[in-house]
Amino acid sequence: MAYAVRMYQAGGPEVMQYEAVQVGDPRPGQVRLRHEAVGLNYADTYFRNGTYPIPMPNGIGVEAAGVVEAVGPDVSHVAVGDRVTYTGFLNTLGAYSTERLVPAAPLIHIPAGISSETAAAMTMRGLTAAYLMRRIYPFQSGDTVLLHAAAGGVGLIVSQWAKLLGLTVIGTVSSEEKAAVAKAHGCDHTINYSHEDVAQRVRELTNGVGVNVVFDSVGKNTFMASLDSLKRRGLMVCVGTASGTIPPFDPQILAMKGSLYITRPALADYIADPAEKAELANEIFGHVAAGRIQIEINQRYALQDAVQAHRDLEARKTTGSSIFVI
């Protein structure tokens, strides 16, 4: 019997229900996949609470890893028995499940030496880190970045990758415990935003210059501090809205604060081209397989505990990556 987490309305964690489901046979372009691990991402909460509107009822989750059990017509790049992982957006919604039908196109072969748990913990976060480090800005050794949520899943990968590129990393955290985790993974400096002024500390740490780039996954609560942390003609990268969406603002403020740039990228636009997706995937999986980047799975949940998992995630009780183990 297969099981899945389903939602019948948008709302808090309690709207998720663990149910028995029928899977069926794959149609053209699909595979039937038996999950071994499922990724838990902050973006999942946006689907659940209605920030990303979806038809109801619906599944939840966009990232998982497992074994192909059947392939439909017109599927050639994966076969029964292959170990694969995937991430996406609406085309992969429904990952919180033990078994499912999924489009074959997003599937990525898991390299030897990488477990399904690691793959589920890193596919979305790793591809996100890959485009941030390789596509957003022409980083040069010696550049400085401000990284919000430095102890989170993406933050820990970005920190390690930044050190491979010779960058200085300033990470923001909410506790001394998270500061220790961030420093262990490459942060040169940490700022505890619960009692420190972020922009002021950044100026102190950069001798008044500011940073080249800010990676801001928090949104509303950190937006102005992020702008105030940038050097002249620096780049603000809005990669998430954990504290809420950024209110409308007058672009003139960018000129007043140093002719700043701002972008709001989405992973989907950096993996839409199969060749570019393969290049980014090969690079991040190569770093992990070689041990240059470690994937920290610090929370494991049973799928039927999805409600508690979301509560922990939104209460910022987690560090590193979180997964559901099937």
UniProtKB/TrEMBL annotation:
**Pfam families according to UniProt:** ADH_N, ADH_zinc_N
Under the heading Gene3D superfamilies, the entry gives:
Medium-chain alcohol dehydrogenases, catalytic domain, NAD(P)-binding Rossmann-like Domain
Q: Which UniProt keywords apply?
A: NADP, Oxidoreductase
Concerning PROSITE patterns, the annotation shows: QOR_ZETA_CRYSTAL
- Enoyl reductase (ER) domain location: 11-324
Oxidoreductase is among the record's keywords:
yes
Question: Could you tell me which InterPro entries the record lists for this protein?
Answer: ADH-like_C, ADH-like_N, ER, GroES-like_sf, NAD(P)-bd_dom_sf, QOR-like, Quin_OxRdtase/zeta-crystal_CS
Q: Which CDD domains match?
A: QOR2
PANTHER family with a match to the protein in the record = QUINONE OXIDOREDUCTASE PIG3-RELATED, QUINONE OXIDOREDUCTASE-RELATED
The identity of this protein, by name, is: Quinone oxidoreductase family protein
Species:
Giesbergeria sinuosa
